[in-house]
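URGENT: need a sanity check before tomorrow's submission.

F., can you look over the TIGR02678 family protein record below? I want to be sure the sequence and structure line up before it goes out.
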Amino acid sequence: MTLPSTHDVALAAERRTAARLLLAHPLVTSDGPHADLFPLIRRHAEWLGKRFQQVLGYRLLVDSSYARLFKAGLGAGAGHRLERSTGTPFTPHTYACLALALSVLVTAPEQMLLSQLVADVRAAAADAGIELEGTERAAGKRTLVAALRQLVEWGVLIETEGHVTALAQEAGGEALITVDRELARVVVAGPLAQSQDGADLVRRAADPGFGGPRTYVRRMLVETPVVLLDELTDAERDWLRTRQRREAQAFSELLGLETEIRAEGVALVDPEEELTDLHLPGTGTVAQAALLLVERLVERLRPQEPGHPATGGSLVIGVAVPDGLVDELLAELVAEYGQRSNWQRGYLEDPPALRVAVLDLLTRMRLMAPARPLRAEGEGLPEGYVAQAPEGRLVTDVRGARPAGGGWVLLAAAARYATHVTVRPATTAGRSAGAQQELPL
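Structure tokens as predicted:
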């Protein structure tokens, strides 16, 4: 066996570093936060472009001053949301302001006053029939500022004199801004010219094209925390089952990711913990409460004797959460940890808000999912309920009684956050039932 040379190892490491950076930050500029690695992207631009296109169907554009990886998305309800500096997610109104600002900036002068940009955004909204009257009030101004701050972060806007936050001042401050029209043109990744409306744009952007199931499943693997086999179509599931070992090697070489393959699905794990916009464990009230909640849910709800397809049983990918259990456990956690862990006072005084924030994080981490009742007739699925997955896909095979009014499902991947694992002797040839097998991922 011939070992790779030092040059080959260094070359592969450089390409992997550049690929990881683009996957985590699809817009990299020569003078931005990752300017030190921009020359690496330019050096390997041709190789990176071919690999991203072959593996994920993503297009890479590398210019003298920026590199843009055009990701395709996974469809409605599966996007990586933008957030304000406070961690508050963008509202539809904020996204509307962002889109309107981009529509103005692609033809804007190189420099302009902040007040002129705001006036142009309002004019564009009027032309598009979008209501933006709220921009005259404090809340509306803060929403527009959030959109403009995102453009500053991307490098589309440069605050030459003053700051865009001046817009939110009571007296209505002014600022001089410089516009990078080229960056404004490449921010939107979807096929705008071919799309009839926003929903059509999202659908077209997620279309894997000639790559079909292969490309779509690969995108799910790198863009979501966990891919459950039950949420895939028959064609996607068959492809993944026959290729998962080979794909694991490919993702290790391209992105340095480790693959966990379990009965319920597949997860790509980053040992460096860089390629994620979600962290659990994490800092802050919501992340701490979410970790403690999922630990206790796993302890309470772990099935006792699950079956397995290999032994004639059914594959269990989730456990029904009894009505009221989430509220009960969160109340216990607030009483036990709230004060001594300095949790945010707003959440301590507003338990429903804490509940919403915690469940939102666990849902995005693919550890929990909202349950949706099924109709016994007309859907082609057994009577009962399912866990709702991104893009309207359904995760079926859920153990336990159906929650009233929908409720929640604890998914298999939550088991990795169990406080302890017990392994019992195998009861059937080739089978060992324990915590890792009950909720394996």
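My own read: The longest strand covers residues 368-373. Residues 92-186 form one domain. If you see anything odd, call me.
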